[in-house]
């Protein structure tokens, strides 16, 4: 019998699973990240996207932008952290607040 500690919100509980029901265990690849604050990581990601030009090269003054965000059931994404930074970056690119639409 395999015993695993699980978390749900602030609660932690033990789950017992028979070995016959375990086909495989998946583990994430270790990734070394540069020590940055969450905000610094977001700014870096916007300035250095993977396989795309930076935001400043994609949007231009006078354009409209739509930001699609998850609803509150996906709270692990912390929109209260990244949305203000994203809007600030868009403003720095010349996108006015009234030209930004968010869809949840």
Residue share in helix: 25-40%
**Number of extended strands:** 4
Distance between the termini: 42 Å
Relative strand content: 15-25%
Biggest sheet strand line-up: 1-2
Q: Which whole number gives the mean pLDDT?
A: 90
- What class do helices, strands and sheet pairing give? alpha+beta
Summarize the biggest pleated sheet. 2 strands, antiparallel
Alpha carbon gyration radius: 20 Å
What's the SSE pattern? Answer: EEHHEHE
What form results from the Cα inertia axes? elongated
Stretches with pLDDT under 50, minimum 5 residues: none
- Number of distinct helices: 3
Can you give keywords for this protein?
104 residues, alpha+beta, two-stranded antiparallel sheet, two-stranded parallel ribbon, 27% helix, 21% strand
Tell me what you see in this structure.
With 104 residues, the chain is an alpha+beta fold. The protein has a domain at 37-104. It is built from 3 helices and 4 strands; from the N terminus they run E-E-H-H-E-H-E. The chain has helices at 38-47, 55-58, 79-92, and strands at 2-8, 11-17, 65-68, 100-103. The strands form 2 sheets. A two-stranded antiparallel sheet has the order 1-2. Strands 3-4 form a two-stranded parallel ribbon. The termini are far apart. 3% of the residues are buried.
Outline:
With 104 residues, the protein is α+β, with helices and mostly antiparallel strands. The protein has three helices and four strands.
